[in-house]
Design brief:
Belongs to the isochorismatase family. This is Amidase signature domain-containing protein. With 733 residues, this protein is α/β, with parallel strands linked by helices. The protein contains 27 helices and 21 strands. The strands form 4 sheets. An 11-stranded mixed β-sheet has the order 11-13-12-14-16-15-20-21-19-17-18, with helices on both faces.
Length: 733
């Protein structure tokens, strides 16, 4: 095998089709039993003319195998309806059955030999066995002919960064070409593979495909299966030749060794080659034992024998190495505000310790994807703070220097990843808790748009602002953060702030345009608050952004500054009190609280904010959010920007300094983060360089922020920056 170029070009109609592997997906339309097997809906519709549609199945198998070998995204669609047919319009339900001289003895929903026709959950509704989706492949149920109507396919494709689609399926004249037309309207470049699509009337196929590529590719391209497979062949494994039978038993092979890397891709490749997750978990616990501050990282570490036993059970459940779940054997940690059934959740506050009967949705989802949970991590009490110095369970320090803070409130989460004790950590972010500690430990911290990932089963700090966040290794980088987010995001009816499908603004896909983007910066007065090292590294980082298509624009920094002040200077801080058991709880439990947390809560109570003041601040927050979205983040506005770029924090304090002045330093650390959740932005902190402090290398990080719903765009730009500076980023020069 050899590496493929970034862009693949194949012969096609009306001219050559070029697609970038990094943003291309396979989309297979409606390869369902109901459309392909005898006695299904298609059999009834076509008058028993299934020859052509059955012939495409082995061809679709070949293209599936190629995309699976290359680990490229694969999407399947299934047309069908809810059991009560409430999503099936009467024009579709009754059209053929009511036609004069019809041969349709049955309609959608009627019982058939494969179950109720075109009804979700029935045997006939599912995909044929030969093309059955493997774990990690996305199946999109659609009620119409086009795959974009009344589905979240667009959100999925945009979330995964897809711009180009290779398309196959049935039927050509109906659902395949309808979907390609819909995709074209949304900006995707599509190529239908001729041998991978068919219909019930073969005379319709050629004109249907001709209409797609007519007029210089009005709707897309058409190519052939041999052409595509030939272009992909260099990266595909050669067909294996059976070993000769020498009539003696071969010695057992040596189990693969683990190279110690924790990125999602490296672990997946190692597991597919036969590496045991037991080997990884055993090695990780050795690292944990050897790490000097492990006790301050974990509030509760899963017993090693239990983790090994769980890894062994994974191997037994998933013996097929070609069909592993997406996060098979990937070790992760949880911030100890996130519930795991039967395990105490502390919020780093002993009076609030409880044992939940239900796990959080995020934990359950990760376990279903094959990940291995290894422990609960330390945090600032009540998830309140940006220093990591407010926990009764110890003070985690930065992985770079034990004299410097880890950042908070997700302190243990960041250190667990920075010390390479886990592939990723799930934390929370209300005021920067998923970004500041990421920056102080040289890892990537991703805070997606609130409501894109379920918060159910997580203890609240400020419920209307709280988000889950993801921390990943610098080697895994933006790619790992994006993959994790895509695997776990989705609407949750149990989360009152969960975003419903289609509720967030989605861009027109830029498949062919120049990769240009616009950004704004904090004003010089704000950047002047940074330490000299941070200031120099920040301007050094942004100075090269033009190399990757960046264009700086003037932005109204005052809007962000004003929003940031609302979080703690106004009434919004009182929402933290709303998360407490009752109004007298602080007074009753004051001796059990961390002194700094006690002071913050008592000050808020003594201030006595009125309901009128709270509503004024809520109105102000809404107004600022609207203004930012209709000006800076509005593509049709002259001051439009894709992202705001800021230092993740203004400086990196010593633990000793924070202990002397805990509130003022903490407040300064939020200069570039406090406004993010108030304005419902998404944000990612990425390593951007190092500097020397007392002969020790220290990390620097910048954060990219974008409008809520622009997650994929923010991730794309952060990935471009990551590619520019490389893993670990540039050092101070």
């Amino acid at each position: 095998m050899e590496a493929l170029p970034k862009n693949i070009t194949i012969e096609a109609k009306p001219y050559s089709f070029t697609f970038p592997l990094s943003s291309t997906a396979l989309l297979l339309i409606d390869l369902q039993r109901d459309f392909i097997l005898p006695s299904g809906f298609g059999d009834i519709q076509s008058g028993t003319n299934l020859t052509e549609v059955t012939a495409v199945v082995p061809n679709c198998v070949r293209i599936l195998q190629a995309f699976r070998e290359l680990e490229l995204p694969i999407f399947h669609t299934r047309e069908g309806h809810l059991p009560d047919l409430s999503d099936c319009p009467s024009s579709k339900l009754n059209r053929q059955a009511s036609a004069p001289g019809t041969n349709h003895s049955k309609v959608i929903g009627d019982p058939g030999e494969l179950g109720r026709l075109l009804v979700r959950g029935e045997y006939g509704h599912d995909i044929v066995d030969e093309c059955r989706p493997k774990r990690g492949e996305i199946v999109m149920d659609k009620p119409g002919k086009g795959a974009f109507w009344n589905t979240n396919l667009l959100e999925e494709l945009v979330g995964w960064g897809i711009t180009h689609l290779i398309v196959g399926g049935v039927t050509t004249e109906c659902c395949v070409t309808t979907t390609v037309r819909e995709a074209n309207d949304r900006g995707f470049e599509c190529c239908i593979i001729e041998e991978c699509t068919a219909g019930y009337n073969n005379s319709f196929k050629a004109p249907s495909l001709n209409m797609i590529h007519w007029s210089q590719g009005l709707f897309g391209f058409v190519s052939t299966l041999p052409t595509l497979l030939k272009a992909l062949a260099p990266a595909l494994p050669s067909p294996s030749v059976p070993a000769p039978d020498l009539d003696f038993e071969s010695p057992p092979s040596t189990p693969p060794m683990w190279d110690g890397r924790l990125t999602l891709a490296s672990l997946r490749n190692s597991y597919k080659s036969g590496l045991s997750p037991v080997t990884v978990i055993t090695s990780l616990y050795t690292r944990i034992d050897e790490y000097s501050q492990a006790k301050s990282i974990f509030i509760r570490l899963v017993d090693q024998s239990a983790s090994i036993s769980y890894a062994e059970s994974l191997q037994k459940r998933f013996p097929d190495l070609t069909n592993l779940p997406p996060l098979y054997g990937v070790p992760f940690t949880l911030k100890d505000s996130i519930n795991v059934a039967g395990i105490p959740t502390t919020l780093a506050c002993p009076p609030l310790i409880h044992i939940p009967s239900l796990s959080s949705k995020i934990y359950s989802r990760l376990i279903s994807l094959g990940a291995i949970y290894i422990g609960k991590t330390n945090l600032d009490q009540f998830a309140t703070g940006l220093t990591g110095c407010r926990s009764p369970y110890g003070i985690p320090a930065s992985v770079y220097n034990p004299d410097y803070v880890s950042g908070g409130s997700s302190s243990g989460a960041a250190v667990s990843v920075g010390a390479e004790l886990a592939s990723f950590a799930i934390a929370t972010d209300t005021a920067g808790s998923g970004r500041v500690p990421a920056g102080f430990n040289g890892v990537v911290g991703w805070k997606p748009t609130k409501g894109t990932v379920s918060f159910s089963g997580v203890m609240n700090a400020c419920e209307s602002l709280d988000c889950l966040s993801f921390m990943v290794t610098p080697e895994g980088g933006v790619k790992d953060a994006q993959k994790l987010w895509n695997l776990v995001r989705g609407y949750d009816p149990d989360d009152p702030y969960s975003k419903t499908p289609g509720s967030l603004p989605l861009p027109i896909v830029n498949a062919l345009g120049e990769k240009k983007w616009k950004f704004a910066l904090p004003d010089r007065k704000a950047v002047a608050e940074c330490s000299p090292e941070y200031r120099k590294l920040f301007y050094q980082a942004i100075g090269s952004l033009h190399e990757i298509g960046g264009e700086v624009k003037e932005g109204d920094w005052g809007l962000f500054e004003e929003a940031g002040k609302l979080l703690y200077d106004g009434a919004l801080v009182n929402e933290r009190l709303a998360a407490l058991p009752d109004d007298r709880w602080v007074e009753r439990e004051k001796d059990e609280l961390h002194p700094v947390i006690r002071e913050i809560f008592q000050n808020a109570l003594e201030k006595g904010v009125s309901a009128a003041e709270a509503y004024k601040d809520l109105r102000k927050m809404t107004g600022l959010t609207r203004k930012v979205n209709t000006t800076l983040f509005n593509p049709s506005h002259p001051s439009y920007i894709d992202v705001l770029i800021v230092p993740t924090a203004p400086f990196h304090p010593r633990i000793s300094a924070v202990l002397k002045d805990p509130i003022a330093i903490n407040s300064r650390l939020g200069t570039f983060t406090h406004f993010g959740n108030v304005l419902d932005l998404c944000a990612i902190a990425v390593p951007a360089g190092h500097y020397m402090e007392e002969e020790k290398k220290m990390p620097f990080s910048i954060t990219f922020l974008g409008r809520g719903g622009s997650d994929a765009r923010v991730l794309e730009i952060a990935s471009l920056f990551e590619g520019l500076v490389g893993v670990g980023a540039r050092d101070l020069v």
